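ingest -> validate -> predict -> emit
validate: passed (alphabet ok, no gaps, 310 aa)
predict: started
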Amino acid sequence: LSKFVPKPEGMDKVPIYIPNPTWGNHIAIFNNCGMDVRRYRYYNSKTNRLDYDGLIEDLKEAPEGSVILLHACAHNPTGCDPTMEQWKDISDLIKSKKHHCFFDSAYQGFASGDAEADASALRLFVSEGHNVVLAQSFAKNFGLYGERTGTLSVLCNSPEERSAVMSQLKLIIRPMYSSPPIHGSSIVKTVLTDEELTAEYYGNCKEMATRINAMRVKLVEVLKEVGSEHDWSHVTEQIGMFAYTGMNSDMCDELTSKYSIFLTRDGRISLAGLNDGNIEYVAKPYMMSQLARASLHHEFLARFDSQKIS
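emit:
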């Protein structure tokens, strides 16, 4: 993209707009590629939900021909995805501004539990005539994290364009890593080219997504049971592997240092790590971290310390 996308008039680098927040490594990747990394509003911390109006406004203000990074499903870290109606409006806006779409798909199958449904936004953009670039990871949805397995797809307009793109990609790949690891990709190919294995895989995704969503609902229920009056509805509205709690870094540090509950300092917790045996232990300190904003905090901590779950 840095090499081949035309630079907007008056700019030395190709601008790429990434959501705020996003996967932390996006920033380093695109900076190191020589692109001008910019942010567009995505998450409203006051409502703990998608900042759709801010998103639209920022994409309108982006220079014509910018690259726009979009999370295909289960946005990381927030778990807040646009509705299909909103995706349609985003598509129309990107087309009107002649922007270029770069999709990052890391959680297909883990958002709704339906791998086909999780590709809906991407397929909408394709049907509307966007020449998308797609970076897809199979680390989570195939359990191949250590194999670094994924694909890069570029939608072309003709066989001739395809040949030209493939030729340029090979020129980039050859001095970079030459040959990709084969074991992980062979597993994915074996599964997705066999109807019976594909059906089993889709069933596995559904089972995992259903369990994760059950933990999402259970966490909110237990928070209420232990006395939290905070509005946690944003957690049940999110999708994917994570819950973006809205807690600040100080609250997260306390959960980790005092109770060995590990989460990223932006308040994101992995729901896959929750189960019926540990969810109450997690929920009680969660509630206390919310109470850290109130004068009752130290009193509540003392009460909890006296009745810790062993």
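The longest strand covers residues 15-20.
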